[in-house]
Specification:
By secondary structure, the protein is mostly helical. It has a domain of about 80 residues. Helix content is about 40%, strand content about 0%.
Length: about 120
């Protein structure tokens, strides 16, 4: 049967699922939105507890297999599933003298560069 306009084929569905499951792409897009356009979101303040921690959970960053492990991963530790957001905030903003976040040039933040494998 010929494909009808507005209908997707199984190949298109599988391709879309593969694209959406690529966590690196999702992480990059999410972090770019969070870090690079502070003026666009000036109408509403971003709150670490309510906005950032859920992203860590959504992308598995604070799961036991990643930075939520008992010893963390790669010298970066988050609480398991965001159970201690104050500690997570300190890990992101203050640990290593705050070098994970670059306020002046957000695109150079380790929080963005590491998950996108732009630095080792």
């Amino acid at each position: 049967m010929a494909d009808l306009p507005g209908h997707t084929t199984e190949f298109q569905n599988v391709t879309m699922r593969n694209l959406l499951s690529n966590s690196r792409v999702l992480k990059l897009a999410t972090l770019c939105l969070l870090l690079s356009s502070a003026t666009a979101i000036a109408q509403r303040d971003i709150e670490f507890h309510n906005d950032i921690v859920p992203l860590f959970t959504r992308f598995g960053c604070n799961a036991g297999a990643c930075h939520g492990a008992a010893v963390g991963r790669g010298d970066f530790k988050l609480s398991l599933f965001g159970s201690d957001p104050d500690s997570d905030y300190d890990s992101v903003v203050r640990h290593l003298r705050g070098r994970r976040i670059n306020i002046a040039t957000p695109e150079e933040s380790l929080l963005l560069l590491k998950p996108t494998e732009q630095v080792a």
